[in-house]
Each structure stands twice: as structure tokens, then as C-alpha cells.
Amino acid sequence: MGTPRAFEFEESLEGLAGPRPWAPSRRTWSAVARRLLRDRRALLGLAILGIVATGAIFAPWVAPYDPAAQGQEMLLPPSLKHPLGTDDLGRDLLSRIIFGSRVSLFVGITTVLLAATFGVSLGLIAGFYGRWVDMLVMRYIDLQWAFPNFIIAVGLVAIFGTGLVNVIVAITLAFLDDFARITRGMVLAIREEEYVSAARAVGASDRRILLRHILPNTLSPVIVQGTVSISYAILGEAALSFLGLGVKPTTPTWGLILNDARPFFTTAWWLGVFPGLAIMLVVLAINFVGDGLRDLMDVKEYQEARR
Amino acid sequence: MKRYILERVAYSLLVMWAVATLVFFMMRAIPGDPVRAMVGFEADPQTVAQIRHNLGLDQPFLVQYVRWLLSLIRLDLGNSIWNQQKVTTLLLEALPRTLSLATIAFSVAVILGIPAGIVSAVRRYSLSDHIFTVAAFLGLSMPDFWLGILLIILFATKLQWLPAFGYEPISAGIWPWLSHLILPALTAGTAFSAILARMTRSALLEVLREDYVRTARAKGLKEQIVILKHALRNALIPVITVMGIAFALLLAGSVIAENVFAIKGVGRLLIESILNRDFPVVQGAILVIATIFVFMNLFVDILYALINPKIRYVE
Amino acid sequence: MAEHQEKLQPEGLQEEEIRWALDFDPQDPSLGLNWEDLSSWRITRRTMLRLFIATGAFHYLSYLMNPPQVFAQGRPGGELRAAWNLREFTNLDPAFINQVFQFQVASNVLSGLTHIDKDLIPRGDLAESWEVSRNGLQWTFHLRRGVRFHNGDLFTADDVIYTYNRTLDPKVGSLHRAVLEGVEKAEKLDDYTVRFTLSRPRASFLIKVTERSSGRALTIVNRRAIEQMGKEYTRRPVGTGPFRIVEHRLGERLVLEKFPDYFMKGRPRLDRVVIFNIEEPATLVSALEAGQVQFINAIPEALYTRVKGNRDLIVSETSDPGFQAIFFNLRTDKKERIGKEKLPTDDNRVRLAVAKAMDREDLIKRALLGRGIPAYGPVPPAQGAYFVDLSKTSPQRFNPEEAKKLLAEAGFGGGFTVKMVVTPPTRRRGEVIADILKRHANITVELEVVDFPVQVQRFDSGQFEWLQIGSGGDYDPDDSIDDWFASTSKFNTFGYANPRVDALNAAQKTTVNPERRVKWVREIVEIVSRDAPCAFLFHAMDSVAYRKDVRGFVHIPSLRDLDTVTVK
Questions:
Q1: What pLDDT, on the 0 to 100 scale, is given for residue C28?
Q2: CA-CA 20 to 30 A from C195: which of A291, B270, C92, C326?
Q3: Does residue C25 share a domain with residue C127?
Q4: Could you tell me if A258 and A275 are in contact, meaning their C-beta atoms sit under 8 angstroms apart?
């Protein structure tokens, strides 16, 4: 069973990309971009991310108010003056969400990219080489997993002090093992597939087999895991901020806005709904882009679509 | 296989020792003193010193460490600094609550997640796929405590169908036990069901595109049989992985659901002990969690082999 | 029902009662108080009111003097389901209780020699009566006869002596050993008479030492139970109180049952009380609204309006005996205090400027959602006669112009930056404080959020620039002053020292004359307010909510005694 899909993939890409399939040349990138742009859902996702990112970068100009400016108009529902209402200290919610996107987007995307990179690498190595390598990597993963992320975070902060870097390290560590585990599970199955043995028979190097034949086939669940992890990362940052282990206790982040709104949930719905929607929008957008990327790698479908 | 399992168990013990050691020293590196945390501002320095002495906390770390390891061998996890209870007692009280909650929450995740994922994949880009997609991301973006409080307001305060909080042991009857767990399980399980739905959908789509599935379709077999017999089985690998992760995480305690619904489970025990710097309880709880994780991994690895017989761990 | 509600209206009853209290010659400088009234130490509500009115705290009455509650005729028996906004009842053994919340429960299970009533006046509990020698050094207590512990043991003088010795025993590690400082010895005169001999008089003896809940050093424990149960005693203490503990699942629930042999006839009125631990505020309130519990021990600030607006619920409120403040680190003697040799607030003018820039109305409105009383000194209105109303006279009262002027004089006209230690639960309050100080004095307050164990450590070792903290359960001026503002006070880690305060404090805590004590306490409060080792913020409110069918709850500030309660 199983088709050497990676071969087809390789053939079709190799014409475009030359010898290194996963380091595409500029031409490939533009081809990828062109294809992605033809996918309407991916396009929508990119557009949303673009808007949010622009808002984050130009927050001081985009936000209607100073996100830290408190006022006497507390817990106001959305109005023309405050489009998303005000919070329990009289701060403008829209401005807080715009400023909050800076840390939240950055932490969410960076941690997931880092965790995916390291986790997938560990999973590939463990699954592919098996035996003692697998044993070693997986026992490390066990060890790291058994350690509550909370202790890792508290410990890191105790040693290095609070700050963005520690938050990112703590959350990255928290997610790394999930990626490793998922990748390894896939590799265990894939390495027994005929096309892998075929490649090996032809004398392909381990690196070539790993990168060209196995990695592409493991990416689909990794992308799913990546998109769902982003929302976890954004919410997880809030838990750290809440304990004073986050970025800076008064810097607004989506997670912290949500956390602080907790007691006012029943009396001021907007405090919870809008930051929650912001997270959802970003995660949905990333999911659309992720789906688009996955479809891209699925060459057959692409070819079919062109027919 | 038997040798493999034995080997895994041996390594696992090693992992647990490493975890225990790391936690032991890490807890002591974190600022904040357990005795001070316990007595608060009230007691005078002499009393604090006396309590520290009584608890053996005035000894060098290494002495404390060796003592603790020695008592571990006798399966004695020591006493809580915070409330003087035996750590094993605290864990034995917390574990049934967490186990109950984890089981129901896991069922919720699987029952909601997997069918939604299958429908989404089979009817890709249909209305139901879109609905499930949005629902999944809603579930992921909504913090657990929000969902929990919403559920309480709806089902406990407004409709008065289910209790707003608390836990009843199964010995009090199936319904009292279950009724207290439904809302917390929904709270803890929803996010996992969303992940499972996405994972199932993606994995299934991947397999549905494989040629043999096309071939099977072309031969005119009923679609359902194709899906179930060929596709689902291979799609299961990442789904199983995620299920393993989800169940292990649930077993380690769903802190937020436990907190919102006032259930004193393992998750809360651990977090509260960290906040109290209650070293012995943190160490004990982490050892238990490590055990759960380690064996969950072993179990998942065995499941891989059962589902895909090509997977072998020993040559 | 309507009638019951009306009688709870504070205004009407209070006026009447005030008239009754003022029924003396207003020209009499001692306000009609005589030696017998005061020296017997059985101060009546009337005496208290007179002192209170005499000291000019008249308009604070509504915060403090609950009207004598009308006992609505509820039927005895039945079960009360209650919830406590607390993780767990960690310690119910008085030797280890360091939190008012824990004592709210223990107070239903254990007894002391005395117990305060809702006006914070000590009444006999296990002591039927007592005398104090004229020099204030010997206190003789006559104990109730025929009182039984929950395990059937007869209560005698031996139990008092045992409790006394246990508190002092270093091996036990009681947190309240220091309370017995100055108590030279405790003797059993006969089975029902105990005498305490002090090395110097102690004005607060009946509240700080012998009282059931605030003292905790002489809250009577049972020897046999402690010897049998060991560490388990702290989970299920055996006492002589109205309820006994029949089940305790730590962090989940505590089941109390009526103790049929309780020494007060007709009490407790309930058969059973089940207390659940619910830490999450939203769940706590939802459980009350849903009727799953009928009584909650506290109303979370943010949900106050929701509770107050619910017609099925009754809110009982009183001023919480305590204060909150921003403490300035004054330990100039310790160069390593925070790596800073000089802080702007080393200068008295700057400290006063901070206090003057503190718009307390705004703080209370936004940080506490309106639930607090502005504070200018440590003694809360709940302490009645000792409270001094500084809202018109304190140099700490809100005045941004003067604040700016003082800052300019001190060379900080452009403001300054400072770090303030807060905990996760007080971060929100800290943000409001930072906003107010920025607005009125251009002072930039950076918050350092640390969790409780770190806060204790930082406070203890004086490792902070500013630190927001306060006091609670202050039933006696000693709790507010002697614990905090003398140079040797146990909580004075911030380095405040004023010889005049030390002298006055030594005098006030050892006097046997309540009138002089009132005078000295008031003077200390005024000095502290002026020296400003801290900027006083507010006195919190103590609130309880219960469903309409719960009757007869007598609200002693900070306590939740349930012996008078009925459910319909």
C-alpha cells in the first residue's frame, strides 16, 4: 500500500527548484506565492494577518487612545467614542487590543515557529533512527513533558528575570514536545513505506531521505498542531503575565486583557468577547494560510486543479 | 516486544529520578521560603527558625535531597509543609477526582472531535465543514474559564439542571458523580475536541487523496467502507498521538476547570503547592504526573504498533 | 418579611439608640462614664457608643455600629449550605491559624475565655466573669461549669493551663507565642478559676490574649484529642464550640454538626452546616444565585453590584477592622536595602506629597468599586472610640496643589520614578494607584508583581522601595499601632522610628484607664499620619451575602459565627 507520493513531488518541484527541494530558489518562492495567491481562503488569511500586523506595527498611530490611559468612564459598552467599549479601569478596549497584538502576535507566532522547528527536528531524528536515538530523544521529551511548564517558567524567571525572551523560551519549551511526538509518530509509519525503502535502495543519503521523502509527508499534522498551538501560546502568555512572570505586568496583551476581564465577564460582555474574537481571527487566518500551504505541497491536487 | 517494554520501564524509572531531582533543586532555586509562606507575616523569627528546624529545612540541600530519596525508596513522599498532611494522602484524595474528570473530559473530546473531523474531511468545504471549522476555532480561542463560567450561568443558575460546582465520589451514586462532572468535563474537553477535529480532518484528507483510496472508489465500493477500512486506519497515527497527549494532560489535572468548578484535583494541588512553595507536595505530585506521562507514552507507542503492524521498535 | 426587612434599615434604629446613648449630661467632660463602667472591663454597648460619640467620630457610625439585629423568628433545625471564598481550610488548630478566613470557621468550633461581640466588645465565652486587680497585673477568670468538649471531656482550668503551655512550647511552633509576652504565669486556683499574672498592665488583654478569634493564643484546645489525633487535629479540631466537625475533605468541604451539649442554651439553632471551598469568585456567586449554597462568606468586589441587585439575596456589611497603605522604605540605616542609598521618599515632604496626591475617593471608586472608607491613619472606624476622624485635619488628606508644592520644595518638582511591590491580587489596585499618582504628582510608579511567598520575604527583609500592604482583623488598637508603628513592632520592617510614638505606645498599651488610652491612641494616629511612614489608602468593607431564607446572622466584623443562624 501507499504510493511514492514524494517522488512525484520531487519530480514536479525539481524542474522548478533544482537539487535542493526544501531550499527553494527565488523562482520557486514566487511560484509558491503565485499559487498561494490563487487560493482565496489563503488570500483572506494573509489579508487578515497583514491588517493585524500593520495594526501592531503602527499601533501608536492606529489606536484611538493611549492603551494605558485610565479614566472615569469605566465599563462602558461599545459606543462611537469607544468602538469596543472601556474596561474596568476606564481604558479604551480597542486601543488595548491593538497594542496587545504586539506582544500576543509576536509571542504566538515566534514560539510556535521555534517549537515546530526544534520539535519536528527531534521527532524526525527519533523516528528515523529509532533504537537508542529514539530512546534518548523520547526520554528527554518525557522528562521535559513531566515538568510542568509552570515550574519551567517560574524557574527561568527566577534565574534570568522577567522579560519577553523568557516568556518565549518557556512557552516554546511547553510546545516543543507535542511537535516532536506528532512528527515521530508519523515518521515511524512512513519510514516503513515502500518509497522510503526504494529511496534507500537507490542509495539516497539519510539526510536526503529525511528531508525529501519523510519531512513533506509529516507536515500536514504539524501545520494543524501549529495553528492550534498559537491560540494556546497567546492564552498561555496571560497565565505568566498574571503572576508577574510575563512581559511587563502593565503591558497589555490579549491574554492578559482576557484574564483581567474575568471578574467582569457577567457584567461587561465586551471585555471578554472582543479580545477572544481577536485571537480567533488570527488563529483562523493562520489556519487558512496553513491549509493553503499544505495544499500547495500536495502536488497532485494542484495538478488536478490545473487540468 | 517484552524486552522492549522492560527496557522502556527501566528507562522510565531513570527519567522519573531525573525529573524528581530537577524539581527538587529547581523548587529550592525559586525565591520564596515555604515556612514564611505558611506562617505569613504573623510569626516571629524564632518561631520561623523553630518550624524550619522541626521540618529539617535548616539542613543543607544535599542532606535534604538524600533523605528524601531514601524515604522515596520506602514509598514515603513525606509531609506537606503547608498543611502537615501526608503527601500520599493528599494525592490519593486528588487522584480520583482528576481521574474522573479526565475520563469524562476525554470522552467529550473524542465524541465531539472525531465525528466532526470525519464529517469535515469527507464533505470538505461543505457548509458542515465550515460550521465545524468555525466552532473548532471558537473552542480554541475561548479561554477555558470563560467557557466554564458560561456553562455555570446557563446550566446551573438559569436552567438549574446541573450543579454549579463541587465533586461527589462515584460511591455516592452514578448520577451525583456524573452530574458534577459534566460541566467541568465540557470545559476541559472542548479545546481538545477542537484539536482532535482539526487533526482528524487533516489526517483523513491526506489519506483520502492517496491513490489506493481513489482506486477503491473507482472499483465502486461504498464510500463508507473505503473510509473506514482503508483510510481511517492510516489516518489514525497523528490522531492517536494527539489523543495520547490530550489524555495525559487531562490526567495531570485541568487546573482551570478544577478551579472554576471547585474540584480539588491534581492540577490544583500542584499549582497551589508551587505557589505555597510546598516542596514535598510539588515533588510528590510531579513524580505521579511523570509516571502517568511516561506510561502514557509507552501505551501510545504500543498502540502505534497495533494500528500499523509495520511499525517495529526492536529489530 | 417586609417588616423584617424594614427593621434591618440602619438609620431609624441608630438614631433611637444614639439618643439613648446620649442620655447623659453633655456638659460632663467624661460624658457620664465612671470608673465602674470602665474598670470592670465590661464595657457596654452604651459605654462604647458614648466614647465613640465623644471622640467625634459621629458620622462614621453607619460604618460601624450595626443595629442590634432583630432576630427574625426562624425555625431551628435544618442544614445550611455555605461556601467560603478560600482554597482550603489549611489549619483549624488555633496555634497555626494565620488567616481570618480560617478562623471564621474555627470560631464556630472552638471557644476562648472571651469573645468579642459585633461592636468589638469582649464578652464572656468560657469565662463566666473575671476581675482585674487595681494595678492591672492580675486577671482572675471564673470559668463556666459543666462545659463539655466535643469528645465528651469536661472543660476545667486544666484545659486553660494546657492551652497556655502549648502555645509557649517551642516544639509545637505556635504562631502566637509572642501574644503571651508579658504574661508571667498562669495558675489554676481551683478547677474553675484561673489567674494570669502580667509583668506590666495590658490594656488589650481581653481582646488580644483571651479572645476566641483574635487572640488564638488561649483559644481552648483539647489535650486528649491532640494526643490521639496528632497532625490530624489541625484538620478536625475538637473544642467546646457550638458545632463539631464531622467530616473534612481538605479543599472541598467541611461538615459541621450541631453539638448538643453546647453550653449556651438553644444554640446552635442549625442541625448541620456544610461549608464548601470555592475559590473562583464567579462560581461562588453563581452557586449562591442558583441556591446550591445559601450563604457566602465574602462578596467578590467585581461582583458586588450583581449580588446587591439580586432580590433573593441579602447583603450584610460592616467596616472591616483594618487598613491598607503604601509603605515607604525608610531603612536608611541599611545601605543595601534595595541597592539604593537614597529614595525620594526618605524626605518627609515627599512622603506627605504622595499621600496628598492620593485621591482616595477615586481610588475607592475605581479599585474597590466604591467599597471602602478613605483612611488617613491606621485605626479603623470599626474600633469605635479609638478611631479618630482625620478626614478634615490629616496632613495626608487629598490636596494635589500642596502635593506639587511639597515636591517642588523637596526638589522633585518634575516627579520621580519608583518601584512598588504588589501581588497578583493587588495588581489592579496598584495600577489605579500608579495612575492617580502620575496624574496628580507626575510620580511614575512601576509595579513589581510578586507572588505571596516572595512578598513576605521582601517585606520581611525590607527589600522594597514601596510596598502595598495592610492589616486586617484589627480588633484592638494594639493590632493597628503596637504591631506596626513602634520602632520595635513586629511588622515594622520599613524602618519607622519616632521616640514620641514609642513612648505613647508603651503608655497606651499598659494603661488601665480606657479614657487615657483613647487619648494616647488618638495622638499616635495623628503623629503617624503626619510622619507618613506610609500613605494610608482605605479601610475595607467586610461583606457577607445570603439567601432570604437565612435568618438571624449576627455580623461580627471579619467573623462568621453561625450559632444564631436559622434557615426557614
A1: 34
A2: C92
A3: yes
A4: yes
Residues of B in contact with A151 (CB under 8 A): 23, 26-27, 274, 282, 286
**Tell me, what's the pLDDT at C51?**
52
Cβ separation of C283 and B152 shorter than 8 Å? yes
Q: Which three three-digit cell numbers place residue C48? A: 462604647
At C334 the pLDDT is 64
Q: What is the pLDDT of residues B41-62, one digit of tens each?
A: 776 778 888 888 888 888 899 9
The CATH number of the domain holding residue C409 is 3.10.105.10
| C302/B contact by beta carbon, under 8 A | no
**pLDDT band per the 50, 70, 90 thresholds, residue C49:** low
What element of type H or E holds C419? Answer: strand C417-422
Of the residues C189, C223, C257, which one is the last residue of a structural domain?
C223
C-alpha–C-alpha distance, residues B291 and A2, integer Å: 37
Banded model confidence at residue B216, pLDDT cuts 50, 70, 90: low
Domain carrying residue C45:
1-66+86-223
Of residues B142, B271, B312, nearest to A276 (C-beta): B142
Q: Which residues of B touch A225 (CB under 8 A)?
A: 195, 199, 242
Find the CATH number of the domain harbouring C258: 3.40.190.10
Determine the pLDDT at residue C339. Answer: 62
pTM of the model: 0.86
Residue ranges of B 181-200 with Cβ closer than 8 A to chain A: 194-195, 198-199
Please indicate whether residue C353 or residue C334 has the higher confidence score (pLDDT).
C353
| Lowest-confidence pick of A18-27, A294-303, C484-493, C551-560 | A18-27
Structure confidence by residue, pLDDT tens digits, C59-101: 444 444 444 444 555 788 899 999 999 999 988 999 988 888 8
Quickly tell me which residue has 459585633 as its cell: C118
The continuous run of DSSP H or E covering B290 comes out as: helix B279-307
Q: What is the CATH number of the domain that holds C106?
A: 3.90.76.10
- C283 and B165: CB-CB below 8 Å? yes
- The CATH number of domain B88-307, selected from 1.10.3810.10, 1.10.3720.10, 3.40.50.720, 1.10.287.130: 1.10.3720.10
> Per the domain annotation, does C2 fall within a domain?
yes
- Cβ-defined contact of A243 to C428 (cutoff 8 Å): no
A30-56+93-306 carries CATH number 1.10.10.10: no
Could you tell me if C190 and C154 lie in one domain? yes
SS3 readout for B12-64: HHHHHHHHHHHHHHHHHHCCCCHHHHHHCCCCCHHHHHHHHHHCCCCCCHHHH
Whether residue C257 is found in the same domain as residue C357: no
Q: For residue A24, is the peptide bond before it cis, meaning its omega torsion is within 30 degrees of 0?
A: no
Series of mean pLDDT values for 10-residue runs along chain A (307 residues): 33 32 51 74 90 92 90 88 91 94 91 94 90 86 77 71 81 88 86 79 84 82 88 80 70 86 84 89 87 67 40
Position with higher pLDDT, A3 vs B215:
B215
Residues 276-315 of B with CB under 8 A from A: 282, 286, 289-290, 293-294, 297, 300, 304, 308, 310-315
> Measured between beta carbons, which residues in chain C are less than 8 angstroms from residue A150?
none
Specify whether the CB–CB gap between C130 and C143 falls below 8 A: no
Residue B19's pLDDT band (boundaries 50, 70, 90)? confident
How is chain B split into domains, by residue range?
A: 2-73, 88-307
Please tell me whether residues C452 and C549 are part of one structural domain: no
Asked if the Cβ–Cβ distance from A243 to C451 is below 8 Å, we say yes
Q: Does B274 touch chain A (CB under 8 A)?
A: yes
* Cβ distance of A228 and B209 shorter than 8 Å: no
Polymer length of chain A? 307
C497: left (phi over 0), alpha (psi -120 to 50) or beta: beta
Mutate to test the interface with A, among B153, B241, B294 (most CBs of A within 10 A): B241
Distance from CA of A264 to the nearest CA of B (A): 11
With a pLDDT cut of 70, the percent of chain B lying above it is 89
From the CA atom positions of chain A, what is the Rg in Å?
22
CB < 8 Å from C in window 236-265 of A: 242-244, 249-250, 260, 262-265
Residue C126: which of C216, C187, C212, C214 has the closest Cα?
Answer: C212
**Predicted ipTM of the assembly:** 0.88
Does C80 reside within a domain? no
Å from C495 to nearest chain A CA? 27
Same domain for C219 and C247?
no
